[in-house]
Write a structure and sequence with these properties.
By secondary structure, this protein is an alpha/beta fold. Helix content is about 45%, strand content about 25%. It has one domain: Mannitol-specific EII, Chain A (3-Layer(aba) Sandwich). Strands 1, 2, 3, 4, 5 and 6 form a 6-stranded mixed β-sheet that branches. The longest helix is centred in the C-terminal third of the chain and has 16 residues.
């Protein structure tokens, strides 16, 4: 399964403004409202925020990947936020976050969930691609960059 297949352009928040990571996570989860496979939006929020309390998903290099497994969804859902101003995410490298990938998957799809997280991590660990995402000027451009980069690795 490709990330670009589960990311709808309407779920990309571009030049978003958030004061903290909880606000960003809630806004990203809210983009999932009405998406196919969403059973309970409030349960998704609760699951993602509880997971974030265990250990920050600020993975470094300006990225965060908040995520959760929950039966409040069927399959996988992805939302992305490119921030106008970086925010503290308690990242492992101490740097603020500029881009957030929210991944939510069905609770019993553990191995697929790990694969999806790994796929996001692999893409964002490419310095050149990461800079392209940071410099993107629209949600459409960000989506197309992701789609094209993903083809290089996973097609």
């Amino acid at each position: 399964m490709m990330l670009s297949e589960i990311l709808d352009r309407e779920r990309i928040l571009f030049d978003a403004h958030f004061s903290n990571k909880d606000e960003a996570i809630i806004a990203l989860v809210d983009t999932l409202k009405g998406a196919p496979g969403v059973k309970n939006l409030e349960e998704i929020k609760k699951s993602v925020l509880e997971r974030e309390k265990i250990l920050s998903t600020g993975v470094g290099n300006g990225f965060a990947i908040p995520h959760a497994k929950t039966n409040a969804v069927e399959g996988f859902l992805l939302a992305v936020a490119k921030l106008a101003e970086p925010i503290d995410f308690n990242s492992h490298d101490g740097k603020p976050v500029r881009l957030i990938f929210l991944l939510v998957g069905k609770e019993n799809m553990v191995s697929e969930h790990i694969k999806m997280l790994s796929r996001i991590s692999r893409l964002i660990n490419n310095d050149e691609f990461r800079e392209k995402l940071f410099k993107s000027t629209s949600a459409e451009e960000l989506y197309e960059l992701l789609k094209e980069e993903e083809k290089k690795y996973f097609s």
